[in-house]
Specification:
The chain is an alpha+beta fold. The strands form two sheets. Strands 1, 2, 3, 4, 5 and 6 form a six-stranded antiparallel beta sheet that branches. Strands 8-7-11-10-9 form a five-stranded antiparallel beta sheet. β7 and β8 form a beta hairpin. α1 packs antiparallel against α2.
C-alpha cells in the first residue's frame, strides 16, 4: 500500500507537469507569457504542495515563473537543471534540498523536465520546466501504513543515496537500513535489525529511478495475527453459546405447552 501511495502521489505531479507543458506550447506560440504566468500561479494556488513553478531557457535564464521574487544567479549549475538537460526524455526527481530558485528556507524536492517552447520570433526552442514540491506531504505518506514497532520505510535514488527514511535515526548512508537496501537491491528478504526480525521488501517507484524499501516488523505482525485469531475465536465461541441458549429457550417454549397437554 505504501508503494502505491507514493506512485499515485508522483503520478499526480507528472500529470500536472504534462498539462503545464501543453500550456507552455500554446501560450508561447501566441506570445502570451502573461497568460502562462497566470497558469503557473493558478497551479501553485490549487496544488497546495507545489511551492514553485518556473520555466528557464537553454542558458538558464528564467522565462516566467509563479513568483516575481529575485532568483538565484547560477541556475545553470543546479542539479535539477543539469539532470533535466542530460536526460531529456524523462522527468527528473531530485533528492530533498533547500529551495534554490528564490532561495527560501523551504525544503523541497524538484521535478524538472526538458521541454520545448516558442521564442518571440516563433522558433521552437528548448528549456527546462521546474516544479518544486514541499516535502511535508511526501514524508507524511510514509506514516500512513502501520509496519509494526520500529517498522519504517527507506527511499533511495538512482545513485544509492538516501532520499528519505521514516526512521528518525536513519538520516545518512551509514544507516544499517540503507546498507540492507543496497544489499538486497530488489526483492524481499528477512533481516535482523535492532534485535527485531524485519521483512524487507525493496521495489522501484514507478515514474522515477528511485527504490523504496518497507521494513515490516514480523514479530509485531505475528502478534497482531494472534490477537485477531483470538478475537475471532472469542466471537465464534460467543456466537455458539448464544445460539445454544436461544435454541434451548425456543425448545422450552415448544415443549412446555405439550407437557401440559399430556
Amino acid at each position: 500500500q505504501v508503494v502505491l501511495n507514493y506512485e499515485n502521489y508522483l503520478s499526480n505531479v507528472i500529470n500536472t507537469s504534462n498539462s503545464l507543458q501543453k500550456y507552455i506550447l500554446e501560450y508561447t506560440k501566441s506570445d502570451e507569457l502573461s497568460e502562462l504566468e497566470n497558469i503557473f500561479i493558478i497551479t501553485k494556488t490549487i496544488e497546495k504542495n507545489i511551492l514553485t513553478v518556473a520555466m528557464f531557457d537553454d542558458q538558464g535564464s528564467m522565462i516566467t515563473a509563479s513568483s516575481t521574487d529575485p532568483i538565484s544567479s547560477d541556475i545553470i549549475t543546479k542539479d535539477w537543471y543539469v539532470q533535466a538537460k542530460n536526460n531529456i526524455d524523462i522527468h527528473h526527481f531530485s533528492s530533498p534540498h533547500p529551495e534554490d530558485v528564490f532561495n527560501t528556507d523551504n525544503e523541497v524536492f524538484s521535478i524538472s523536465k526538458y521541454i520545448e517552447y516558442y521564442d518571440s520570433a516563433g522558433e521552437v526552442k528548448n528549456g527546462v520546466l521546474l516544479i518544486n514540491i514541499d516535502t511535508s506531504e511526501f514524508k507524511a505518506l510514509g506514516e500512513m501504513t502501520n509496519l509494526g514497532e520500529k517498522g519504517h520505510i527507506v527511499i533511495m535514488n538512482q545513485l544509492n543515496e538516501l532520499i528519505y527514511s521514516s526512521k528518525s535515526e536513519c538520516n545518512s548512508v551509514d544507516c544499517e537500513s540503507v546498507a540492507v537496501v543496497n544489499r538486497i537491491i530488489l526483492g524481499g528478504q528477512l533481516n535482523n535489525i535492532d534485535d527485531l526480525s524485519m521483512y524487507v521488501s525493496v521495489n522501484t517507484i514507478k515514474y522515477t529511478r528511485w527504490r523504496i524499501a518497507t521494513f515490516i516488523n514480523v514479530n509485531a505482525l505475528s502478534e497482531t495475527k494472534g490477537e485477531i485469531l483470538a478475537i475471532m475465536v472469542g466471537i465464534f465461541g460467543g456466537t455458539l453459546i448464544a445460539i445454544a441458549i436461544s435454541s434451548a429457550a425456543f425448545s422450552h417454549r415448544i415443549t412446555s405447552p405439550m407437557n401440559k397437554l399430556e
